[in-house]
Amino acid sequence: MKVLVPIKRVIDYNVKARVKPDNTDVDLTNVKMAMNPFCEIAVEEAIRLKEAGSASEVIVVSIGDKACQEQLRTALALGADKAIHVQTDAKLESLHVAKLLAKLVEQQQPELVILGKQSIDSDNNQTGQMLAALTKRSQGTFASKVVIEDGKAQVTREVDGGLQTVSLTLPAIVTTDLRLNEPRYASLPNIMKAKRKPLETIEAQSLNVDLSPRIELVKVEEPSKREAGVMVESVDELVTKLKTEAKVIS
Amino acid sequence: MNVLVIAEHDNGQLKSETSKVVNAATKVATNIDVLIAGHNVGEAAKSASEISGVTKVRVVDNAGFEHQLAENTADLVVEIAGSYSHIFASASTTGKNILPRVSALLDKSQISEIIEVVDGDTFKRPIYAGNAIATVKSLDETKVITVRASAFDSQGSQSPCEVDSLAIEIENGLSEFVSIEQTESERPELNAAPVVISGGRGMQNGENFALLNGIADKLGAAIGASRAAVDAGFVPNDMQVGQTGKIVAPDLYIAVGISGAIQHLAGMKDSKVIVAINKDPDAPIFQVADYGLVADLFDVLPELETAL
Lengths: 250, 308
Known about the structure:
A: 250 residues, B: 5-stranded parallel β-sheet, 8 helices, 16 strands
């Protein structure tokens, strides 16, 4: 079984994003970038499927400018077999990404595609579902457990109120939730080895996808600041203030 | 302009988010239809017809939609999407599962988790874990949108509107429901509770979460948790508040033993009043708290319960 794992280069999750003074976007110059945490979980799951003998090949793919090759190398160091970089400098929406990925799915014919459930920059939570729609495949979103057996994927999903298990006909699309696994770290020898693994670059235009924008970013602002609070000395003072000042309890 | 709102329900009952999504819909159009796809949804359909502003309730009631699997529900929405300028759903796990599939099938870009309607094409939504608010304008003729329910008010009630039954069956063989493991709780739902009290890693273990029970009972509060508490196995993951868990905006949020990482703040910083109880005076949670108490939670929680 071939597994395709799309990954995204995003701002490091520990960094607090800063809005540009002209309110056109978030300022990413000189900001530490990393693989999106949910994508790390997706890569880990694919590698575990390979280690368990369910997967034969793990291909990672990233769409964006040249810098995202860094994250592809990281994924190769973690155990992926091959990387594809879809080169574009365009600002892409989830729909565009899903369409580009759908072309790759058509070319590569993976039986399973594992994506993160959302990227921590745009917080969209769309690409996996859109890819499933475009490739007419089943989808197991927000997965906390994936079991492959008898041509099906049994996916346990984190839903509001509990856990739901669905059985998906393969080929399928799965998106990862945080508790699916604990991603490993790349060892130094593996980082060295990853430099020799194949990384193919293709131009996004060559995939013949309409990348014209459907959503215009009008402006980006700082969220409204909360007024500075007060420190209280005791529980009694806290309760009194909640009753008389904030009036949130009676 | 016509809006189709996809109802949030568990077959038996309509969820409170639906009313809030209708509230968001009233800001773009006056003609608002609610779709209820499920099995034995008569009660939920009746409740939807009584939400102020709803023009018509469209019901698709058959066993195939009992679990609202994304594959068949998305096909259903696409089948009836024709005359609508906007399709709205709650940014719940159900809405997030289904709507992007609908959006791609319609060849539209989706706008996720809006917190404000500027006009019929323009919406505000948080990005980067709520550290920036983007104003975005949809250039598509059909706008496919999920709504952060906590950012909108509930609608009032009206005398019931028309309820229309549609006989649509969709069977694509892509997926099957196997089982559901529901977390039992007598307390109000996190998303809808007026008061939320959450525990973090500082609670030290799952048993200590019982210290929050008495306080939650007295305040009619829901109990939440930080990711650290969930990952440590103290409590189930559907209690998680944050960027990757539930987004809440109650009148009062009490954070106990929670440091206040960016990802947690993303889920609660729109609460009206925030109280933080932490023994570390430098914990980032104090920067967003209206009232902060530096103290050991094990001393303070019993005291707080008595004082209420």
